[in-house]
């Protein structure tokens, strides 16, 4: 087999890996396979994630533990520059780590920000209000399950899912583990106060170690733009940036 030859592996060993009979290839073997396949950086990173989550060479053997919730000061300053826009800092577990005042105004009536440590993934799969807020709940559920599976670390994911899976049930467990990224389209909200909103989500990765990113919600149509403009005016008199 050409791939085995280029990676310097025996055909038998590569076959065992492909069939799932060897789930613990060493980092050097994973890198050799990536080299043999001429993977681009993004694809190579995805291969590492697959190996990590499946219990292979990149898996964490530490006890389950939550990811760091700290957000760098420079990232908070960047978020502040987005006021009065609708934006938050989150991670792949769905933790809402910081947000603008407009984001608080938009989500205040939905239930997402209830509690001291809001989490979008938990809200989607556990809170019945999520099915009313997200017009295409299945799309959002697919996205959150995939992001959860992708990181930020095996230990953190195990820590998070230990409590989430029993209460989320098949809605999560049947989605979790799919290696195919879901199609990401407009986010459609049926807002309790503002009506139907169509939003484009732009993401900016800011912390590779903790998989933190800035997510900005932008209006996709005129009605949504007017609603967000009114929201920004209402939130202008309230306290601004909040780190959770």
The level of helicity is: 40-55%
Largest sheet: 6 strands, antiparallel
Total of domains: 2
The number of helices is 12
Judged by helices, strands and strand pairing, the structural class is alpha+beta
Question: Whole-Å distance between the termini?
Answer: 52 Å
Radius of gyration: 20 Å
Shape: elongated
- In total, the number of strands is 6
Mean pLDDT: 83
| SSE pattern, N- to C-terminal | HHHHHEEHHHHHHEEEHE
Q: Residue ranges: pLDDT <50 for 5 or more in a row?
A: 57-62
Please give the CATH class of the largest domain: Alpha Beta
What CATH architecture of the largest domain do you see?
2-Layer Sandwich
Q: What is the CATH topology assignment of the largest domain?
A: Beta-Lactamase
Our estimate of the beta-strand percent is 15-25%
Brief overview, please?
This protein is of the alpha+beta class. It has helices at 2-7, 11-18, 27-36, 41-53, 73-81, 101-107, 120-126, 129-133, 137-149, 154-168, 170-173, 222-235; strands at 86-90, 96-99, 187-191, 195-207, 212-219, 242-243.
């Amino acid at each position: 087999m050409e791939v085995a030859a280029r990676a310097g592996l025996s055909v038998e060993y590569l076959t065992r890996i492909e069939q799932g009979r060897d789930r613990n290839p060493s980092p050097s073997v994973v890198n050799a396979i990536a080299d043999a396949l001429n993977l681009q950086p993004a694809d190579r990173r995805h291969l590492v994630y697959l190996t990590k989550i499946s219990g292979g060479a990149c898996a964490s053997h530490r006890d389950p533990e939550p990811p760091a919730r700290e957000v760098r000061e420079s990232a908070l300053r960047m978020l502040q520059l987005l006021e009065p826009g609708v934006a938050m800092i989150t991670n792949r577990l769905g933790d809402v780590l910081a947000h603008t005042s407009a984001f608080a105004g938009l989500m205040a009536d939905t239930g997402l920000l209830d509690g001291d440590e809001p989490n979008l993934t938990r809200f989607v799969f556990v809170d019945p209000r999520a099915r009313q807020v997200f017009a295409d709940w299945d799309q959002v559920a697919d996205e959150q399950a995939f992001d959860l599976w992708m990181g930020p670390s095996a230990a953190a994911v195990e820590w998070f899912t230990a409590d989430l899976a029993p209460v989320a049930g098949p809605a999560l467990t049947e989605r979790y583990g799919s290696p195919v990224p879901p199609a990401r389209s407009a986010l459609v909200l049926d807002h309790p106060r503002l009506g139907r909103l169509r939003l484009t989500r732009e993401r900016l990765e800011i912390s590779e170690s903790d998989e933190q990113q800035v997510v900005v919600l932008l209006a996709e149509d005129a009605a949504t733009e007017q609603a967000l403009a009114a929201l920004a005016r209402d939130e202008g008199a309230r306290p601004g940036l909040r780190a959770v």
